[in-house]
Automatic annotation (TrEMBL):
Subcellular location: Cytoplasm
Function as written in the Swiss-Prot or TrEMBL entry: Regulates arginine biosynthesis genes.
Gene name as annotated: argR
Identification of the protein by name: Arginine repressor
Keyword set, alphabetical order: Amino-acid biosynthesis, Arginine biosynthesis, Cytoplasm, DNA-binding, Repressor, Transcription, Transcription regulation
Predominant subcellular localization, coarse grouping: cytoplasm
InterPro entries: Arg_repress, Arg_repress_C, Arg_repress_C_sf, Arg_repress_DNA-bd, WH-like_DNA-bd_sf, WH_DNA-bd_sf
Family: Belongs to the ArgR family.
Length: 165
């Protein structure tokens, strides 16, 4: 079975793509604040693990725009630009930026997103480690959230609707 991969380009950005880039930059800062990253390939793999599949060209632009420096220990943030945990976008910001609608079917939730918004939302849900979330599956514009039971799905649906607005 073919697993679709999404590659993001910054050319001709619309609002959703600009938000995606901002989210990606924030994740890069967070990754660098948490651990040493020796190469672009390692950074690309870590980004993919967080739901951001990018080309080498996009990653090079990100490194330039973020003014990352590379030393003997790998890439680092320049001039004390360490990521502050409070400045990182949470699931609320990701849902506000990409979420359109949420639907419930028993213990399952389906979040409809803007094009390209599903993977960041799923990664954000996984990162939050909420007890209402057993797991997520993301396509391009749809996230399936598996909850342990219908009651917790209803609770999570209400929370997501509040975040989406």
């Amino acid at each position: 079975m073919h697993s679709p991969e999404v590659f993001y380009s910054d050319r001709g950005r619309n609002g959703a793509e600009t938000k995606m880039k901002q989210q990606r930059h924030t994740v890069i800062r967070e990754l660098l604040a948490k651990s040493s990253i020796a190469s672009q390939d390692e950074l690309r793999r870590k980004l993919a693990g967080r739901g951001f599949h990018v080309t080498q060209a996009t990653l090079s632009r990100d490194i330039h725009e973020l003014r990352l420096s590379k030393g003997p220990d790998g890439y680092s943030l320049s001039n004390g630009a360490e990521a502050d945990e409070d400045s990182l976008p949470g699931i609320r910001e990701v849902l506000q930026g990409f979420g359109l609608e949420v639907r419930q079917a028993a213990n399952l939730l389906v979040v409809i997103t803007t094009t390209g918004g599903a993977q960041p939302i799923a990664a954000g849900m996984d990162y939050e480690d909420w007890p209402e979330v057993v797991g997520t599956i993301a396509g391009d514009d749809t996230v399936l959230i598996i909850c342990p039971d219908a009651d917790r799905a209803t609770q999570l649906k209400t929370r997501i609707e509040d975040y989406i607005g």
